[in-house]
Amino acid sequence: MAATAARIPIRPHSVKPAAKSAVRRWLRWLSLTLLTALCGFLAIIAYANVTAVWASRGRIFSDVSELPATRVGLVFGTTDRVNGRENLYFRYRIDAAVKVWQAGKIETLIVSGDNRSRYYNEPEKMRQALVQRGIPADRIVCDYAGLRTLDSVVRSKEIFGADSIVFISQRFQNERAIYLAKAHGIQAYGFDARDVHTQAGLKTKFREIGARVKMWLDVNFLNTRPKHLGEKEALPE
What pLDDT, on the 0 to 100 scale, is given for residue 1? Predict the structure, then answer.
C-alpha cells in the first residue's frame, strides 16, 4: 500500500502584533486629525458669523426715528423680479429707503448693484422705483459696479467719497456691510428693511453663512479689493 503523503497544516495569514499596533495608532491619529480639522472649520464658520453681529451692535435700527441723520444712504442692489415673480427683497428695500428719505435722515441715495448687461441693471431699476415713490432723481446716484457687498461698501468711500453712511437692506446684509465698513475706516449705520420669510428667504439665510466666512477671509487674510474702481465721482451737494 502506497504511503500516505504527510499533510502540512496551512495556517491563515496573520498580521504581526507590532504591525497591528502601528495600524491602530495610525487610524487613531487620522481620526483625531480629521476631528480637529472639522472642529476648527466649524469654529471659523461660527466666529465669522458672530463677528458681524458684534461689529454692528448699536448701529442697526428698525425705528427710523432713532436712526442718526447721515448725509448719504446706500441701498444694496437686487433684481426686481425672480423667475417672473416680484422679488420681495427689492420691494422692501425700496420701502425702507423711502421711509429713511421721508424722515429727513439722508440727503443723497447711492443705489449700488450689478449692471452685467443691457437687460440686467439693478441700479437703474432701483432708481426708477425710488423716483416713482417721490425721491428726486437728482438726489439718486447709481453705482453700476456694486457686484458684491464688499464692492459697494469700499466704492462708497473710495469712489463717491462717503466716509459716513447708512446702509439700507435686510438686517443680515446690514450686519455684514457694517463689519466691512469698519474694516475700511467708514462710519456706518444700518436701517433694516422688512425681511423675507418665504422659501427663497430661507435659501438666502443659508447662503449668508458662507458669505460671512468669505467676508471674514476677505478682510483678515485675502485683502480683497473691488473688481472695478475707476475715476472718483462727486455726490450731489
Answer: 46
Identify the pLDDT of residue 69: 97
DSSP state of 140: E
Fold of 60-222: Rossmann fold (3.40.50)
Backbone angles phi, psi at 176, to 5 degrees: -65, -40
H helix or E strand, kind and range, residue 170: none
Question: What residue segments make up the domains of the chain, in order of their start?
Answer: 60-222
Closest CA to 209 of 38, 53, 39, 40: 53
Please tell me the total number of residues recorded for the chain in this structure. 237
Looking only at the bridges linking them, the beta strands covering 85-86 and 108-112 are unpaired
Question: How far is CA 35 from its chain centroid?
Answer: 28
Angle at 74 between CA 72 and CA 75, to 5 degrees: 145
Alpha carbons 72 and 100: distance in angstroms, whole number: 11
The Cα 226–Cα 120 span in angstroms is 20
Cell readout for 124 is 437703474
Q: Extract the residue ranges of the chain whose pLDDT is less than 70.
A: 1-16
Write out the H or E segment, with its range, that includes residue 50.
helix 17-55
Q: How far apart (Å, rounded) are the C-alpha atoms in residues 8 and 235?
A: 97
> Which amino acid would we find at residue 85?
R
Q: Which of 173, 169, 191, 152 has the alpha carbon at shortest distance from 60?
A: 191
Matching residue, cell 461660527: 46
Contact 99, 166 (CB under 8 A): no
Whole-number Å distance between alpha carbons of 165 and 122? 20
Specify the 3-state DSSP secondary structure of 10.
coil
